[in-house]
TrEMBL record:
It comes from Panicum virgatum. This is Ataxia telangiectasia mutated family protein. It comes from the Eukaryota.
Amino acid sequence: MRGGDVSLDGQVVVQKDTFRYLGSVLQKDGDIDEDVRHRILAGWLKWRQASVILCDKRVPQKLKCKFYRTTIRPAILYGAECWPTKRRHVQQLSVAEMQMLRWFCGHTRRDRVRNEVIRDRVGVAPIEEKLTQHRLKWFGHVQRRPLEAPVRNGVLERVDNIKRGRGRAKLTCDESVKRDLKDWNISKEIVLDRSAWRLAINVPEP
C-alpha cells in the first residue's frame, strides 16, 4: 500500500463508492439507494422474461397474480430484511409495483383507476407492508437465536445491544424495526412466541 492505494499482486485496486456482495449493493456512505434501485431493476428483469404471459389476456388473472407474488416480488425484496428504508425508498418500490400490476390488468394511469381497486382486483398486498413483514420476520429470528450463536455477515446483533456513535447517524436497521413495531402496534414481548409473532406480522393478500 502506497499513498493510500491498495495493491494486489502488483496491481492497484480501484476504489469505488459501491460494492456488490451476495446480490446486494453496498454503498460507501451506508445508504441503500443503489441497492433499492438494483432490486427494482431485478424485478423488472423478471417481469420482462415473463411479459409474454403476464400481458396475455388469455392467461387467467389469478395465475398472473400468483406468478407476481412468487417470482417478481421476491426478486424485488431480496435482502430487504436489513434495509433501513426511508420514505423515498418505499415510494420507489410502490411506484414500480403499481406499474407492474396495472400493466397485467390492462390499465394505465390515464384510466384513472385507483390503486386500491387494482390491488383488490389482483389480490396483491402493498409491497411496503410486505417489506415490513420481511423485516419483522428477520427481527424475530434474530431475537430468538441463542446468545452463543455466531454472527453472520455482521447483521445478527440483537437490536437492544446496538449503540449509536457520536454525531447524527444515518437511519439504521434497528431504528427501522422500532418504527415498524410502533406503527403496527406490536409488542416486542411476544417475539419469543413464534406462533404469536407470525400471526402478528402476517400481511394477508386481498
